[in-house]
Amino acid sequence: xxxxxxxxxxxxxxxxxxxxxxxxxxxxxxxxxxxxxxxxxxxxxxxxxxxxxxxxxxxxxxxxxxxxxxxxxxxxxxxxxxxxxxxxxxxxxxxxxxxxxxxxxxxxxxxxxxxxxxxxxxxxxxxxxxxxxxxxxxxxxxxxxxxxxxxxxxxxxxxxxxxxxxxxxxxxxxxxxxxxxxxxxxxxxxxxxxxxxxxxxxxxxxxxxxxxxxxxxxxxxxxxxxxxxxxxxxxxxxxxxxxxxxxxxxxxxxxxxxxxxxxxxxxxxxxxxxxxxxxxxxxxxxxxxxxxxxxxxxxxxxxxxxxxxxxxxxxxxxxxxxxxxxxxxxxxxxxxxxxxxxxxxxxxxxxxxxxxxxxxxxxxxxxxxxxxxxxxxxxxxxxxxxxxxxxxxxxxxxxxxxxxxxxxxxxxxxxxxxxxxxxxxxxxxxxxxxxxxxxxxxxxxxxxxxxxxxxxxxxxxxxxxxxxxxxxxxxxxxxxxxxxxxxxxxxxxxxxxxxxxxxxxxxxxxxxxxxxxxxxxxxxxxxxxxxxxxxxxxxxxxxxxxxxxxxxxxxxxxxxx
Length: 561
Fold this sequence. Notes:
Elements: H1 15-36, H2 42-47, H3 54-63, H4 68-81, H5 87-90, H6 94-110, H7 116-124, H8 126-159, H9 163-212, H10 214-223, H11 238-241, H12 246-268, H13 270-277, H14 282-298, H15 300-313, H16 315-321, H17 334-342, H18 347-383, H19 389-410, H20 420-444, H21 450-472, H22 482-505, H23 542-559
Helix pairs in contact: 1-9, 1-18, 3-9, 3-13, 3-14, 4-15, 4-20, 6-12, 6-14, 6-23, 7-8, 8-9, 8-18, 8-19, 8-20, 8-21, 9-10, 9-15, 9-18, 9-19, 12-20, 12-22, 13-14, 13-18, 14-23, 15-16, 15-17, 18-19, 20-21, 20-22, 21-22
């Protein structure tokens, strides 16, 4: 049973704030109605007809990730752990986003698959395809539920709306525009939502820094607070990983987060990859995640820093950090308390719109990827084959409704976690880490067999679940996100080992069936993109853009080492 948020978080929203919220809702619904005009087939509805420019798909790519994980989870991490939280961006995102753009998108886009599970079906057959399609569908409704629950907490705490009413209202708005306009409506709304989110968080950061005496004032206050100066250095991040030994903590971050969780999420999560698949050309598809990487590398300034400010400027969070118990305050509340204390009316309306934008972008990404996988990979593949396209368009819209209804119920699962980031990372270790192991082996080892594809996935998932169960029952002692990091590493290693062993005793597919799916068997020309017309110019080169964002990330990492 979820308790209503405390009255001390309640904000005195004025008519101006509600007017701004009304304008925002009108805009997102208007985009849905406009996008409906371009939907005439299932491909239009589920993949935007592969017609969108790179700057649109790039901003949508990063906006789709700006859900509850970012705003509540990362500000909570910022308040609890400080600067080490940047690892989720600079180690846990940027390298994988560049790898996706330069290495994996040529296979996704070039093979013309409609989803990540469909790629596995071509590579391995129905076994791995069905396992991945089912696990992905479950993961998306669970993660959509996280966003809905987080939004409901905010509306209840700040405006006094009940949690059930808040969940239903948010779900209804997202459902309306995604059902009307499909992926195009979701993507164009995500572009709008990106700018609304920045407009909401930037003033909060500036006002917060002013209150604590600028950056140096924040440094001084954090140094004198519980946790001390260690929170101002990104390494070794022992409080973040829950691993007491500094060397093992670094290894856990680099391998568990920087490699397995990060690459597993960004390169195989169809909720993100779908945005790149909707691009108008191979070059635009490659550039999509790399364009998104540039704002991603700077986002800690408006998400992590507000969490750090809350830890020293908000009395309730400061008391929690000092060890106070029984108050009902959680680190997830950090950004809400900060808004309560810092934002006047008008700014409050923009901030509320930004929070709504964040959660709705996350829900829309989850639901729009769920409906594609359900329609193409489950319904069309295993239930009703060879029907007219209008039939699958109708199924796609019904799947959107069904996915949202299930997400409303899964929203309450997230209520058991004081830090939403713990829950999200646990889900990623279950679903994304083993999938990445299967993908990376499948793309670079032609000997991997169809049987190994699905057996390795199941074994890896069970390994991650086992680690979580042992951590929950204190058979192994890990705090923070440590269980997720260790679980992800276990899933990856077990998946690889089982896949190799099974491959050695089973029969692989003929090489001629693997062209375009395995790196060594795919001609370079099939992996290349156009450099003329709309794709011409050094500033449109995926490689140049990728190197640029990696250099920027390295410089920032050295500053905060």
